Q: What sequence folds into this?
């Protein structure tokens, strides 16, 4: 998976590898498990696990259906909603503005650079995401607005419930790669066979709530400074 | 001495708000909507509601009766214009640009310029505030340059130690006394890598003159005082010594000022968090006198020697020297600016310390006006400033306040209204300590509506 900022073989993968060795076969074509969030240093984090994403990318090529209707990520109350959107490769996403003020939507993520311009309350504009990976979305007008579009080349993904439990079912036979991600963590991947049960999968979250970023011109946002003389 | 409080509760905030909302087209969002353009043009209008306490201090000087207003038995230092007033202070036109990566310029003209005019009534009603061209890149405070480098700036520009992002409209007593006004000359900067830097300047030198540290400078030496029994509309103010403006058409380098700075800065790449410490020194030989627009008083040594050079402050030489340090700290929406200055003014020692703390944060969206958020930000700020002259006034002088200790505390907030229109409301408490040791407090409320168009 050519994810923006992805890495492989990190602590999660190592933990999972160990657990995968202990995997108990589940009823065919299914991977189950529990995701736990940890802060830097290993302390458990009790909230936010449901924001994680777990996906299975089979080695065997699978067909991914692209919906005819565009997905929607809106700007509302100076936030992107939803803040994380998972779409199939080739999917179109529309960015309507529900606010009574102007917003901008842009990304400089490799392979998915776009700038939809500045627009007021309207149905907005669309972008088609052709490259799998994580696309970071920002507003050039408001520094605190951010969102993620996770572009997957597989139909097999899910998000854990509030207790961290997840289940991927109806998986094809054969090995593949399990992908784990949280908005405040890094990507992690693990080679797995379907029919695995993965308990206590840890995702370390250490990133800022608002990801540090430059504006669309590559300049710092200058919220605190205002020339006054 | 008397203090009279201004009538309270007359701030017509609704009127200000109505005016602001009536001109949303003038406003633009604080962030850039368009591609960066090498050229920028800005128009800015400042209007105020001002409420100034009335204060009057008798001065120990034997004015002849015909030199005083009718019915006034002694000379007084008095609030320039006490009471409640609506004012339009400044219309600023500014045009500049970053024409090449190595070439920038700026021209800033203030029209009316009410708060910088000195004397308030008779100084020029327009001023070329800045007019400079710069070769090379100059980093902003607490922002890392991409790499080391050098720049040279030529023209009229602010001193490199001046705070350029005040969060209140008024100035502290230190920033008024030492580096409020621009100077004419050349400035060189050398970034030794990204963190350490040197600055040097060779300039005309701002003449030493006097002004009230509150909004209006005051009227001193205006032509009306050449007539018998003068009764000017505006009063002297309670002046401190300060570095006055240099008119761009009167620049000469007979008594130049040399400045030097050594600084260190640290910041993240996004410029949201930064720290900078600058130490600086300045030196200049004062002139015997400097002619100033609108007043028959002379600046520099002429002012310090008193009327007819007969009532001098205890000056010992002609050298003016300053050493000081600045601190800038930025952390997200928080900002801290602090400055310390130690001055030797022709043998008169004086120190000053000033600190401003502000926090700017976004407000939740509840309404928009023509695509811009109504009330997008708010920034409370507080500033403490203190001026400590280490000398005593002459026994006979019309201007004893040069030697008074002064503390000014300004507290207020700046509310973004819509686009680039904002309202700053602040309250200043002045505490002066007379030679007798007696402390006198007097206050000023200032509300500033700023309308801006352009970059």
A:
């Amino acid at each position: 998976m050519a994810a923006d900022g992805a890495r492989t073989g990190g602590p999660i993968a190592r933990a999972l590898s160990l657990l995968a060795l202990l995997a108990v076969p589940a009823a065919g074509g299914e991977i189950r498990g529990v995701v736990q969030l940890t802060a830097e240093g290993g302390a458990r984090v009790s909230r936010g696990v449901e924001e994680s994403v777990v996906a299975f990318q089979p080695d065997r090529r699978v067909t991914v259906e692209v919906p005819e209707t565009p997905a929607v990520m809106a700007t509302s109350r100076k936030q992107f909603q939803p803040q994380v959107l998972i779409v199939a490769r080739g999917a179109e996403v529309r960015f309507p503005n529900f606010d009574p003020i102007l917003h901008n939507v842009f990304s400089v993520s490799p392979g998915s650079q776009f700038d939809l311009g500045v627009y007021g309350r309207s149905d907005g504009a669309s972008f088609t995401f052709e490259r799998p990976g994580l696309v970071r979305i920002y507003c050039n007008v408001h520094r605190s607005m951010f969102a993620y579009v996770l572009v997957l080349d597989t139909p097999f993904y899910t998000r854990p419930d509030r207790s961290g439990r997840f289940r991927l079912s109806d998986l094809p036979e054969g090995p593949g790669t399990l992908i784990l991600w949280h908005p405040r963590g890094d990507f992690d991947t693990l080679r797995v066979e379907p029919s695995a049960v993965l308990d206590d999968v840890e995702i370390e979250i250490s990133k800022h709530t608002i990801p540090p970023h430059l504006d669309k011109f590559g300049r710092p946002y200058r919220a605190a400074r205002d020339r006054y003389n | 001495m008397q203090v009279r409080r201004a009538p309270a509760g007359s701030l017509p905030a609704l009127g200000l708000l109505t005016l602001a909302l009536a001109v949303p087209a003038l406003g633009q969002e604080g962030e850039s909507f368009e591609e960066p353009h090498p050229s920028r043009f800005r128009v800015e209008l400042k209007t105020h509601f001002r409420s100034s306490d009335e204060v009057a201090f008798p001065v120990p000087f034997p004015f002849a009766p015909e030199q005083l207003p009718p019915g006034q038995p002694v000379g007084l230092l008095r609030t320039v214009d006490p009471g409640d007033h609506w004012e339009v202070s400044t219309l600023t036109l500014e045009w500049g640009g970053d024409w090449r990566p190595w070439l920038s310029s700026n021209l800033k003209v203030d029209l009316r310029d009410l708060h910088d005019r000195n004397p308030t009534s008779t100084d020029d009603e327009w001023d070329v505030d800045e007019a400079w061209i710069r070769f090379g890149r100059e980093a902003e405070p607490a922002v890392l340059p991409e790499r080391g480098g050098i720049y040279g700036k030529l023209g009229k520009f602010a001193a490199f130690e001046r705070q350029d992002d005040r969060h209140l409209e008024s100035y502290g007593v230190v920033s008024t006394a030492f580096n409020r006004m621009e100077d004419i000359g050349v400035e060189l900067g050398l970034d030794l890598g990204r963190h350490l830097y040197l600055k040097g300047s060779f300039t005309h030198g701002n003449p030493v003159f006097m002004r009230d540290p509150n909004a209006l400078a005051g009227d001193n030496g205006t032509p009306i005082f050449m007539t018998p029994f003068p009764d000017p509309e505006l009063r002297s103010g309670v002046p401190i010594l300060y570095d006055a403006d240099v008119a761009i058409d009167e620049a000469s380098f007979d008594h130049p000022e040399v400045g030097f700075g050594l600084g260190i800065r640290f910041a993240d790449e996004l410029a949201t968090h930064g720290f900078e410490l600058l130490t600086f020194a300045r030196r200049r030989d004062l002139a015997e006198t400097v002619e100033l627009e609108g007043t028959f008083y002379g600046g520099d040594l002429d002012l310090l020697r008193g009327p007819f050079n007969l009532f001098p402050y205890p000056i010992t030489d002609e050298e003016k020297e300053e050493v000081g340090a600045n601190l800038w700290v930025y952390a997200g929406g928080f900002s801290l600016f602090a400055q310390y200055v130690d001055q030797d003014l022709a043998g008169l020692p004086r120190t000053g310390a000033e600190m401003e703390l502000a926090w700017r944060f976004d407000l939740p969206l509840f309404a928009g006006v023509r695509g811009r958020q109504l009330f997008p930000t708010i920034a409370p700020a507080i500033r403490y400033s203190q001026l400590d002259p280490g000398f005593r006034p002459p026994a006979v002088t019309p201007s004893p306040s040069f030697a008074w200790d002064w503390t000014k505390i300004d507290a207020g907030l700046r509310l973004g209204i819509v686009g680039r229109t904002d309202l700053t409301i602040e309250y200043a408490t002045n505490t002066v300590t007379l030679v007798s040791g007696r402390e006198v407090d007097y206050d000023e409320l200032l509300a500033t509506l700023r309308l801006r168009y352009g970059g």
Observations:
- The radius of gyration of chain A is 19 Å.
- The first strand of chain A starts at residue 31 and ends at 38.
